[in-house]
Amino acid sequence: MNNDKKKIVVIGGGPGGYVAAIRAAQLGGEVTLIEKKYLGGTCLNVGCIPTKALLHTAEIYEEAKNGAEYGVITDVKLDFGKAQERKKAITEQLVGGVEGLLAVNKVKIIPGLASFVSKDTIQVKTTKGDVETLKADKFIIATGSVPLMPPIPGIEAKQCIDSTGALELQEVPKSMVIVGGGVIGVEIATLYSTLGCKVTIIEMQDEILPMMDKELAKILRSILAKKGVDVYTEAKVVAIKDDGTEAKITVEMKDQTSKIIGGEKVLISVGRKINTDAIGLDAAGIKSERGRVITNDKMETNIQGIYAVGDCTEPIMLAHVASAQGEIAAENALGHESTFDIKTNPSCVYTNPEFASVGLTEEQAKEQGIDYVVGKFPLMANGKALIMGGEEGIVKIIAGKEYKEILGVHMLGPRATDLITEGALAIGLEATIDEVIATIHAHPTVGEAVREAALAVDKRAIHMPN
Amino acid sequence: MNNDKKKIVVIGGGPGGYVAAIRAAQLGGEVTLIEKKYLGGTCLNVGCIPTKALLHTAEIYEEAKNGAEYGVITDVKLDFGKAQERKKAITEQLVGGVEGLLAVNKVKIIPGLASFVSKDTIQVKTTKGDVETLKADKFIIATGSVPLMPPIPGIEAKQCIDSTGALELQEVPKSMVIVGGGVIGVEIATLYSTLGCKVTIIEMQDEILPMMDKELAKILRSILAKKGVDVYTEAKVVAIKDDGTEAKITVEMKDQTSKIIGGEKVLISVGRKINTDAIGLDAAGIKSERGRVITNDKMETNIQGIYAVGDCTEPIMLAHVASAQGEIAAENALGHESTFDIKTNPSCVYTNPEFASVGLTEEQAKEQGIDYVVGKFPLMANGKALIMGGEEGIVKIIAGKEYKEILGVHMLGPRATDLITEGALAIGLEATIDEVIATIHAHPTVGEAVREAALAVDKRAIHMPN
Amino acid sequence: QIQEKPKGGRIKASPLAKKIASKKGIDLAKITGTGHGGRIVQKDVLAYEENVVESQTQ
Ligand SMILES: Cc1cc2nc3c(=O)[nH]c(=O)nc-3n(C[C@H](O)[C@H](O)[C@H](O)COP(=O)(O)OP(=O)(O)OC[C@H]3O[C@@H](n4cnc5c(N)ncnc54)[C@H](O)[C@@H]3O)c2cc1C
Ligand SMILES: Cc1cc2nc3c(=O)[nH]c(=O)nc-3n(C[C@H](O)[C@H](O)[C@H](O)COP(=O)(O)OP(=O)(O)OC[C@H]3O[C@@H](n4cnc5c(N)ncnc54)[C@H](O)[C@@H]3O)c2cc1C
């Protein structure tokens, strides 16, 4: 091999690590990737992709069941095993794809567990059982996160599962209690409740999806309720008891009363634990805070030549953030100048209807003391949403009061997870509502509602009274 | 009424006219709208909305039928009457909505046929049978277009229908020959072929959807073919013969042979005729070219105070273009300065997968002698597309060679009609691929493929070999 | 859309306008933008360049 090539070692093969590895190779690095378990990491194996694959089955199931309204008379039966098979096939295809891409880019893969022995050397316990020692010019840490099991009394009950377990069920349970109403909890609630399971969500905060715009989260909560999901907020699980076939969950409600809820399964989705215990941060002298590696916006740690990206660094744990940071770390490691900016980062929740957001929520704008104005447009007045049965949704834009620059876009409705890109690009380009308004939005699309919400900021929406 | 208010008369209540009327009222005009037939025009009554409502039924039908792949075992029966009912309900709801909006904005509606008697006066034959004479400070013409019936021998056969007829069928025909493979032809082909009709498309040009990027149109054609639609290009219908239950269509193929194709219905979708015969353009001295009213980019005709918008002015006949022009005409009529710019205009085809485009096609870039580069990304490598069964699609970006500014975005794939907005905003803001790349695209979404295509322009896509 | 008067503060320019100006060594501060909110767009840079060339050849 060419000896002028910079040697890059990437630890962890999730969307942070494998993207960093490919980008580093593109820029001329000699790259080695260490992965202890599975290429594609959480995202491809037990995260984004498996959830969305199963949710797509749920969506088709729901649409087929409600087909009569559209003139499609159906008799529907679920074959959940088949859905699981398809999920597996997709996951395998994508993991195989990543393997292929790494090979094309001449990234060397070492299956094994890496840990620093000093700031320029790591040791790898390979899955074959050897121990290899590696030196490199630059390291990129991308070891991600794992499900967190909080110390609730009784959590060891056999009914308790984490997100990985929830995605591996071979049958739809009759009932499920979901502890934690964040993105993972709400998506799995959507999945199983759609497929006939009685789902109860217990959330400590005063609304589900606490990081999303509260007004829209509230609407989503009422849609979930209409579909039969019980949601308790400001509620706390204090004990879990294995009661044979069911677990009994004791919940302290906001009015101080307590309630016992039974569940065939109990999903614990209260958060994720940073996965850095095994990598020897101390041996390399890398600064961290409760396991979280501290980086600057170039993804540099305090140790020169060591970068970190993704879930192990970022309170916002998202695959696309991990990948974006992976590219940036690789660019900096190879002598370019790149910085990470979170401001165009979309958050998507794959509920039905979908929920997506970019930029500031109204709550954040208020908190930060920003002078803002709001434009809202209900999807009831959007033709395509009506056609798709998505009339309960809404688009909400937060803009600066003086210049009307777009600060936040929030959407609840069909295709929201894809439509949010317009908001992300607008925020990235520091666009004002004028540029969104000047852009012709195709008819009939749900996206027209984004333009109407921008018009509504100026109290001149066309398709609703202002 | 307040007498300083400018009197505005809008002729035609389609998406060009009713939007102009609302905008003019917002800006303080005293507005009267004349509509001879139905509020909402072609778009809401016999165009965009009814096609998409029926296509949504087709989509659900197809998805339910193919549900087994996703673990949704179905037994499916079509109730086309119910689909038609729902279409009608949606259309009525939206037309009612427009009526309500006009009322809220205090727009006076006169049902009737308007024609100019001079450049500042019109006469209205009201549907009640009266004749009213109206003067106004400004006029906005938005009389739209109607289906064109070309002089093909035998076209009066009872099997021949136009798009309006095709949307009113109460049963799915066994077979349909579609003369003209433009947007309307291809959408109706998608509708009925999905619902079990044997469809044949006859197109004169060398590819269907001649205004779209040819490379993608070709892929779509092959997808249609796989679904059982026969497509003949460079083929010409020379005669139609009523043969009892069927019509026999004589087609001259590109190799000079001729072929006779039978169809229970024959859809004539070769174009649309501008609807200005009845409005007395000459009496007002308004310049036109074969019926098409000539305007500048302020939507002004040659006669001061008379504006025209939408299908009656524009070779690109789209509802969102009509509405955009309507807003602009109203703004100029009320003393503001607005200009229309087509460059952000998306074209959408509601096939399955969807097909959407904004900016220059590769053919146009070539024709205009522009130095361009292309970035392409196949949806086979996009996780969400794979999940949705949309792996045959592709995203293609045309960028300027020197500065990499985005000139055109073309997408064939799930949700393309909504995803195209990013391209429209990018073109409107004169963004280069760098800004699209700097924008974080949520995972897993089909939209990630847009960023990958932008990366591919620079030969640095992550998820495919470059 | 209704044109607005340019707002003060930092120079706003489209990404394409910026790229062209930097490649051609044109100072954006000297250009009046005609885009939304006085944003400098491609056509403004090209018009400015033409003007400069013209006044130089005169
Ligand atoms: C159920 C669920 C659904 C989700 N849905 C979404 C979604 O829709 N969209 C989204 O953006 N995000 C989603 N996420 C979050 C997303 O999966 C993560 O943010 C993302 O995977 C983080 O990427 P990463 O590369 O930082 O870490 P990971 O994906 O966790 O990858 C880390 C990798 O490092 C390996 N590793 C760890 N330590 C070592 C070591 N010492 N040596 C070698 N290898 C090591 C691990 O085996 C793992 O493969 C979801 C998560 C879950 C759990
Ligand atoms: C089947 C089909 C599908 C389509 N799908 C789409 C699509 O998905 N997306 C899209 O953007 N476009 C689509 N179009 C095109 C779209 O419908 C038209 O571009 C749009 O309706 C044009 O709007 P307009 O206001 O200019 O004219 P129109 O909608 O045609 O409205 C003109 C109105 O003026 C009235 N009128 C005419 N003359 C007079 C008179 N003398 N006095 C009083 N009233 C008069 C008419 O009755 C009519 O209501 C489709 C068209 C068809 C036929």
TrEMBL record, chains A, B:
<dbReference type="Pfam" id="PF02852">
    <property type="entry name" value="Pyr_redox_dim"/>
</dbReference>
<dbReference type="InterPro" id="IPR004099">
    <property type="entry name" value="Pyr_nucl-diS_OxRdtase_dimer"/>
</dbReference>
<feature type="domain" description="Pyridine nucleotide-disulphide oxidoreductase dimerisation">
    <location>
        <begin position="346"/>
        <end position="454"/>
    </location>
</feature>
<keyword id="KW-0560">Oxidoreductase</keyword>
<dbReference type="InterPro" id="IPR036188">
    <property type="entry name" value="FAD/NAD-bd_sf"/>
</dbReference>
<protein>
    <recommendedName>
        <fullName>Dihydrolipoyl dehydrogenase</fullName>
        <ecNumber>1.8.1.4</ecNumber>
    </recommendedName>
</protein>
<keyword id="KW-0547">Nucleotide-binding</keyword>
<keyword id="KW-0274">FAD</keyword>
<keyword id="KW-0285">Flavoprotein</keyword>
<dbReference type="InterPro" id="IPR016156">
    <property type="entry name" value="FAD/NAD-linked_Rdtase_dimer_sf"/>
</dbReference>
<feature type="binding site">
    <location>
        <position position="52"/>
    </location>
    <ligand>
        <name>FAD</name>
    </ligand>
</feature>
<dbReference type="GO" id="GO:0004148">
    <property type="term" value="F:dihydrolipoyl dehydrogenase (NADH) activity"/>
</dbReference>
<dbReference type="InterPro" id="IPR050151">
    <property type="entry name" value="Class-I_Pyr_Nuc-Dis_Oxidored"/>
</dbReference>
<dbReference type="InterPro" id="IPR023753">
    <property type="entry name" value="FAD/NAD-binding_dom"/>
</dbReference>
<feature type="binding site">
    <location>
        <begin position="317"/>
        <end position="320"/>
    </location>
    <ligand>
        <name>FAD</name>
    </ligand>
</feature>
<keyword id="KW-0963">Cytoplasm</keyword>
<comment type="similarity">
    <text>Belongs to the class-I pyridine nucleotide-disulfide oxidoreductase family.</text>
</comment>
<feature type="binding site">
    <location>
        <position position="203"/>
    </location>
    <ligand>
        <name>NAD(+)</name>
    </ligand>
</feature>
<keyword id="KW-0520">NAD</keyword>
<feature type="disulfide bond" description="Redox-active">
    <location>
        <begin position="43"/>
        <end position="48"/>
    </location>
</feature>
<dbReference type="InterPro" id="IPR001100">
    <property type="entry name" value="Pyr_nuc-diS_OxRdtase"/>
</dbReference>
<feature type="binding site">
    <location>
        <begin position="143"/>
        <end position="145"/>
    </location>
    <ligand>
        <name>FAD</name>
    </ligand>
</feature>
<keyword id="KW-1015">Disulfide bond</keyword>
<dbReference type="GO" id="GO:0005737">
    <property type="term" value="C:cytoplasm"/>
</dbReference>
<feature type="active site" description="Proton acceptor">
    <location>
        <position position="443"/>
    </location>
</feature>
<feature type="binding site">
    <location>
        <position position="311"/>
    </location>
    <ligand>
        <name>FAD</name>
    </ligand>
</feature>
<dbReference type="InterPro" id="IPR012999">
    <property type="entry name" value="Pyr_OxRdtase_I_AS"/>
</dbReference>
<dbReference type="GO" id="GO:0006103">
    <property type="term" value="P:2-oxoglutarate metabolic process"/>
</dbReference>
<keyword id="KW-0676">Redox-active center</keyword>
<feature type="binding site">
    <location>
        <begin position="180"/>
        <end position="187"/>
    </location>
    <ligand>
        <name>NAD(+)</name>
    </ligand>
</feature>
<dbReference type="InterPro" id="IPR006258">
    <property type="entry name" value="Lipoamide_DH"/>
</dbReference>
<dbReference type="GO" id="GO:0050660">
    <property type="term" value="F:flavin adenine dinucleotide binding"/>
</dbReference>
<feature type="binding site">
    <location>
        <position position="271"/>
    </location>
    <ligand>
        <name>NAD(+)</name>
    </ligand>
</feature>
<feature type="domain" description="FAD/NAD(P)-binding">
    <location>
        <begin position="6"/>
        <end position="326"/>
    </location>
</feature>
<dbReference type="Pfam" id="PF07992">
    <property type="entry name" value="Pyr_redox_2"/>
</dbReference>
